[in-house]
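RETRY 2/3 - previous attempt timed out on the joint model. Re-submitting the same 1468-residue input unchanged.
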Amino acid sequence: MKKKILVSLVLSFCIAFYALAQNREISGKVTDTKGEGIPGVSVLIKGTTSGTATDFEGKYKLANVPAGAVLVYKGVGLVTQEIAVGTQSVIDVVMKEDVQTMQEVVVTGYADKEAKTFAGAASKIGGDRIENVPIATFDQLLQGQSPGLLVSSSSGMPGTGRTNVIIRGVGSFGNVDPLYVVDGVYVSADYFATLNPNDFESMSVLKDAQAASIYGARGSNGVIVVTTKKGKAGKTQFNYNFQYGITQAPQNRIPLMNTQEKIDLELQQGIGVASLSPDSLARLRQVETDWFNLVFRNGVTTSHQLDVQGGDDRTNFYISGSYFKQEGTIRNTQLDRYTLRSNTTHSFNNFRIRTNISIGHSISNFTREQDVFIGSPINAIRWVNPYEMPYDSRGEIIQFFFNSQNPNPIGDLFMNKRETRETKIIGGASLEYDIPNVKGLTARTRWGIDYTQREGSVFLDRRTYIGSQAQGGNGSLNQSILKDARLVGTTSLNYSKTFGQDHSINAGVFYELSYVDIRTFGATAFGFTGRLQSFAGSTPGAQGAGPNYIPTVGGSFTGNALSSYFFDASYDFRKKYFINIGARRDGSSKFGANRRFGNFYSVGASWIISDEDFMQSTSSWLNTLKLRASVGTLGNQNPLGDFTRLAIFGNVTYAGVQGIAPSNVPNPDLQWEASRKWNVAVDYDLFKGRIKGSIEFYDNLTKDALLATQLSRTTGFTSQVRNVASIRNRGIEFSVSTRNVEYRGFRWTTDFNITYNDNKIISLSDGQTQIVDGFVVNKIGLPIRTLFAVPYVGVNPANGDALFRTIDGNLTNQYRPSDARPFGPTIAPYFGGFTNTFTYKGISLSAFFVYFYGNQIMNNDRINVEYQTYINANVSRDLLRAWRYPGQITDIPALSYGYPQEPTSRYIEDGSFLRLRNIRLAYSVPENVLKQAKLIRSATFYLQGQNLLTFTKYLGQDPETANDFQQGQYPQPIITTFGMTLGF
Amino acid sequence: MKILKHSIKITLIVLLFIAGSACDRVLDVKPTDILDQEKALQNLDDYEAALVGCYTPLRGAGYYGRALYILPDMMSDNLAEITGSLGNYREMTDWFFTPATGEVSNFFIAAYTAIGRANLIINTIGKFEATNQRKANRIKGQALAIRAMAHFDLLRIFGQSYERNSSALGVPIVKVFGQPSLKPKRNTVKEVYDAVFEDLLAAEELLQPSNVDISEGSTGFNKNFLSLRAVRFLLARVSQYAEQWQDAVKYATDAIGNLQPATGAAYDGIWENDNYANVGEVIWAVRYNTIGEGRIAAPVTFFSGNYLISFLPSQALMSLYNTGDRRINAFTRVLTTSGSAGGKRAVSKFLGRGGQPDGVVDAKAFRLSELYLIRAEANRRLGNNTDAVADLNAVRNARNAGALSTAEQNDFFLAIENERRREFAFEGHRWFDFRRYKKGIQRGTDCQPPATACSLPADSPRFVWPIPQSEILANPNMEQNPGY
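RETRY 2/3 succeeded.
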């Protein structure tokens, strides 16, 4: 020990002496390609630890540089450069942004992988694709952005409504939500309204077994990995984003009767107004209430965001704050959101520390939707008669209409209050350590929390219809709180090494623990006879003589945990041949006692054919041709209830006495749904990027799909959850990006993607061929949730009866459910999106379309206005065509004909649509203009339209839905905004 | 540096180790709101709780909450659908229901859920009987009674015949709990009757005052639970359906004991006020405490504000009451609002506890007057005319309806039928009486649109409900009733 120190002392002495003689000072300036100085770039003498960093203007000065030394210039996000000193004393360096590596990295959530070497199927969506789009929840913004990713939303209510995200088809009868990972933290799919999508740097969609292999029992639905923005080394920069615009509702496409038509119908049928005197009738005929107009409005949407970022080679930061407000197209619905984010990284010695913290708070006012309740305003506008008036002579809201037998839609909308307040924190921190002496060996531990607190409040005014139905008949207040905490900790050891010229390996072993804990508490109080709308305004009351105002209290806990070991390795040979393997062992609290642990694996390989010598002749136009393939298994544990594995007794009450009752049939063999996934793909790049893209083929087979296996009801239960069914999804994804025209600063580019997914049920539980659930069926050989209805043929001209086709092909006027047969799929088999962008100097115009093709929707909104026995309420104008006399040829049965309300094929419609999802015209002020303004670094102004055009045959306000049937759905708004982005 | 390196390595290893060893513990997430089966049933108190669980299916919309209480009257001629009805039950009320109709499977599921829960008690309580035999008897006796009642009600709805010894199809008799592989065949009507009587007789024995810890008259007795009297009531009712008239007289007499039909305000009070604890008229009532637990007659009841009402009492029913009959005003009330029901007489029998019009009120499932009318019918069948007339008049006099006229006495079975119609209006008897009397339904002149059907012949297969489609699909051994 002692000896070594002595030697090194002597050595360093010598070097110092030598240096004194030969060394000199080097200075210079580091600039970017535009000539701007870059601060914080490190300048090091290669092979030593001595060096410096550039100052605020990008200048540096380094003394004692030995002759013959090589200087290394390094900066975050910049291409590293090495320059031999030679005889120079001033070295100016122009550094390029490291665009290459930024674009071509696949973020798997555990590691960033070079896209070139990656054998899995993953697509990356840049943050710019969703930036400044005036939609609150980021999952909705993914629509049409990536092949294989089907995104449909059933609500246009600002910030609420769950979006359905399906990656490569539905492989389960249960929940197929992808796994969402934000900066390494698993986040719940339920609360995206309180995250600011403008903070997102990129989103990776991991689709096949290889890409998602390290997610094991949770990977089979695919994974969406979100990476938020990092600060860039250099000058501290401020960006300010502002946007303002209008939200509008789309047109109603189911024409309803007007006052004259409706009154005439009632007179003809001898109902409703038929009993009124001619005078009263004449007065009623003067009324023409526009119920849509009373409920819908043009709302305002606005947002402000300020972010600041900067740093040097050791530390960088990104801090942002935002405010987003959107008024819904239905009155009194609105979202207000406040977010704050701080991302920092810091490195010292061999350590790197990273933190990502975001805090958001949102307040949303909402209304009832997607139900068949007469009290939901969006239903009531269709069902209230046009001759009924919203206000009485004193200007008070009339709560209930006796003719249409329907509450007034504005009674609920204006007097009742529904509000959700959500606070969400996502925080993560990681510590990485490069183990000295073993080059390429890195240890990392990363911990994260996703915490959501959601407070719901529903106040029902006693004067309203719904409020009068409350216990005790005098309104109610329900307040509830939900606390959803998710913790994850991952510790890993990673190793990467290159052997000689040809071989390099990259491997990691991981241990991970994750935990979900969800608690709720809620109470409902009654008797709001005064003015206060808080609990203070309630009347506590006992049973007996008076009204029953006894409050109700509820609460719950649920949770699950996962303990996992996994392994991930890749090997490449000559940067042409690549092999990736992954394996994971998951233990889950959701699995039955006999199946506590599940093993998952994947193997992938890729080959860059275009880099082979024999491809030399085509290399002038075929720049990249890559073949890749993968196979593996992944699991889905979403559909498993947290405690389904147990034989459980729930609490019940009868006659005020507590009791218990068995609530399920236990299954100790319960386990994850296993999915075997194949993927074969070709990546191509022709004419130096003029045409590039991928074609992918996949075949996913879910075995052990969980099914609520139907039991004989005589068991006292309806079903038992078992791993019995299998489902196959096969498909093709095609994507292409082209630079069509590049001429004198004018540029036209196109991005296009299309997916075809063939979804098929292979088997159900033993011996079963189909499971009918209302008007959808799960049947072997057909897609999941295929519409199932009795075929409606038309009307018998002789007597006005509806005609149905029996299962034997005959016509009948008898509705029998046993005649039902399958119709189309409810999930679109073809879908995608395309963008055309035109830029000329500072002006750019981009138009983004999305499309869905081949799905059908049961239009329940139509059922409720066409069903002939609902004619007390307002009905569709189509009923004017109802059969009236023998011989009449029409498609609407006689109003007197009673057939069940059961949906028939009469209401099944094509759900295909093409929508101009976003169009944006932007102008960036030229830099030379800005230079004169000094303070401002960049300025962009834009006009933007969201959902401006929709082409569809579907007769609903909005063809987009994630449901099998559409009923009272809050339509997606049409949003027009003006915005600007300023950089300082 | 070296020390740092080592410590990092050690820390890592320790971290991995700690995390690894923690995993099994972490995976054992325990529910807090629900119980594991092993922990659920460990003593007789737990069985008492499980017994409470047998009653909740009876409260739901599949049983007294609708299917077996207001619905059979909506399907008959005591109620008439009016304009403004949403027609939510029209498949049932106009008899075009199918095996897929929700109301059909709701009842089927509710009944077998109750049976399954009762079976769990009956089959396993033996282990704990020694700790308190009397308490165990009370619990088991009720469980047996519930099992018998549910089987009998299933028979009333799905059974192809009511004849005591019929070999026509009844319903499966189930005496096991929680066997997912169970796919039973339908037992014959005779076998179902046998099983029902066997359970009821066993219950009657267990529930004798000398065998139980709580019985009628003692502290803790509660009419919301089945008592010895209720079991005898059931025996009487089952005997009536089985036309075992002597048994019907015997059990009715046992059940009546020394009780007299309620009169005057005491009778009125059991409806709106649920004031029946000390009124002999109510033998068993299904308890409803909150709106969440259900509203037994929502389609016919006007709530606060006189909103939505789908059915009014039929003119034919109302014309059956003599002037001055207490039941007119105890069961109905003239509405004072506009709208299609305005100014008409509507059902107020189930308006709400304490006169609060929220529809939350108990279903008086077993009533003393039914016993009188069963005994009257049985005695008449046996030729004991005097006793028969006496019982019928006892009810009529209590209701201020006057004694039977000679003409009525001469057409006694019609008199019984009409009295049952008057007394049990809207309580779910009418549909089954049509079936028992083998009569067709003929609705009156107030059968108007939106109602789409006004008559159902006596031989219609619709009188026997279809086995639910979901059961047919899940159980290949299940046979469907004819006509579906």
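The longest strand of chain B covers residues 282-286. Closing ticket.
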